[in-house]
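Hi P.,

Sorry for the delay on this. The queue was packed all week, but I finally got your sequence through. Input first:
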Amino acid sequence: MCEKDEEEGAEEWVPLKVRKQRRMEELRDRLKSKVKRQREGVEAEKLQQFSSGPLSKKSLFEEHFTRDALERKVGEEVRRAEQEEEILRAMTQDMPLQSVAARAHGVVFTESLKTSWRPPRWILERSGEEERAIRQKRRVDVSGEEVPPLVERFEDLKLPGPVLKFLHSRNIVKPSPIQMQGLPVILSGRDMIGVAHTGSGKTVVFVLPIVLFALEEQMKLPLRPEEGPLGLIICPSRELAQQTYDFVNDLCLVLARSGYPPLHPLCLIGGTRMHEQEQAIRYGCHVVVATPGRLIHWLKERKMSLMFCRYLCMDEADRLIDVGFEDEIRTIMDHFVQQRQTVLFSATMPKTIQRFAMSALVRPVEVNVGRAGAASLDVLQEVEYVLDEAKLTYLLECLQKTPPPVLIFCENKSDVDDIHEYLLLKGVEAVCIHGGKDQTDRLASIRAFKAGQKDVLIATDVASKGLDFPKIQHVINFDMPKEIENYVHRIGRTGRGGHTGLATTFINKMCNPNILLDLKQLLIEAKQRVPPFLQTLETDIDLAPMGVDPSFKGCSYCGGLGHRITNCAKAEVARNKQLNIATGVNANSREFRGGGEY
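Then the structure:
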C-alpha cells in the first residue's frame, strides 16, 4: 500500500518537448499582457489630454466646472501679476538718475564712449553660436546691444606685463566668469551692470580698467595740480572704500616701479583728517575712492571738481541707490559736466534698482553670473534653532567647529560689544567693529584681523558688504538679519576665491516669518539641508504663479524667494517714505534714512 501511495503522490513525468511548448506559451502570454497594459496606459494618457468632448468620459457639468475653476485660477494669477507690476512701476523712480543740467537741456547720449582697447582678432572672428556656447559653459548671461566677446585668459586682454605679475602675486591666475565678460565690456567703453555672487572677483573688474584708463590719459597729457579725478569709485561703507583704495594704490605702485608714470589715488572717507585729504586734492589725483558723504562735502566746498571725470563706478550699487542714498547719488551726478562711463556692481540687484539704474546708463550691458541675490554654492549653510538666552554659551561651541579666523555678525551694536566682552573674558583673541566706534579703531581692528593677529572679528552689517578677508573658514550669524540680501552678503565673507567655507546661523521663533521663509527657499535653491523648524513653515502664496514668467520667483522688489511684493516689509517702508515725501514729512530724518556713511 505504501508503495502505491507514493506512486500516486509522485509528480507526473512530462516529456522535454512538451515542457518547452508550455514554457513558450507562458512567455507569450506574459508579453501579450505587458503590451496590453502599455497600450491601456497610452490610451489613458491620450484621454487625459482631452478636458472636454466624448473622449474625456466626463459629464458636461464636470467639464464646465473644471474649465471654470482653471480659468478663475489663471485669471487670479494674471491679475495678481498685473497688480505686482503696477506696484513695482509705482515704486520705481520716474526721475532719471541724471544731472540737473542734463535733464534741463534734454541731453540724451546715444553712443558709448570710445576707447583704444580692442580684443584679439581671433576672438572677434568667433561666430555667434561659438560665443553663446562659451557663455553657456561659463554660466554667463548677458543682455544688451553688440555685447563685446568673452575673453577666457588675462593674457588675451592685452594687459601690461606689470599688471599680470601683480595679479599673479595675488594668486589671481585665471579669470572668473564675471571677469571674463566684465573686463572686455568695460575696456570697450560700455556702461555695465554686473551681478555675481560674493567672492567672485568683481573688484578686479572695475579697478583694472579705471587704472589703465588713468594711465593712458596721464601718458597723453599729464595731470596738473588741483586737477582730477579722472575716475571715481563710490562705496557704501568706509571699510569697503579703504579696502578698494588699498587695491588701487598697490596696483599704481607696481606700475610706477615698472617705469610707468606715477598715478595718485585718493581715499575720501569720514573719520580721517580733512587737512590731509585737502592737501592730496590740491596735489592732484587720478582716481578717487570715496563714500558719498565726504565726497559731497569736498564737492560743495569747491575743493574738488568732476570736470575731467569720465569713469564712474558704484560698488554695491543696490545699497547706494537704495532708500537713504538716492539724494546723495543725485547730488554727485549734478557735478558731472560731460558724458561718462558708468558701471554698477553688486551680488544682490533687485529689479527696482536695475530699472532705476538704467536711467543713468547709455547702451548698457547687463552681465549676470547666476541669479541676482543667490547664495554662493561654495558655502555650507547650517541653520541652528537657538534660544536667545542660550546663544552666548552655544557660540563657544560653534567657534570650535573650524580653526580661526572666524567672523561673527550681529544686528545691534550692543550685541557686538557684549559678545566682544564675553569672548575676551573666555580668553579668545577677538576684536569688534560697528558704526559707533572711532574710524581709527575700526581700521586698526580690521588690519589686525586680516594680519592674523586676532582670531575672531565681531561686527554689524558694516562689514558684510564687499570686504574681503583672507581664508575666512567660518561665519556665524548671531542673529538673523532683517533683510535676506544682508544674509547673502554676510555668508559671502567665506567661501571666496574658489575656497569652501561654513556659515552657521542662529534662529528662533522671535525671527520674522517672512525672513525665515526667504531663508528656507534660499537653502532649497542652494541644495542645502533645511532644518525641521524651517520645514514646518508654509506659505499660502504661490511663489511662481502661472500668469508670469516661470523663471521668476519670489519678491520683485527685494529679491526674497519666500514672499511676494504685496507682503514685502522693505517695499512697505519704501511706500511709506514716498507717501511721507508727498505729504511734506521730512524724508531726511533719521527715521527714513538708510544710515549712509560720511
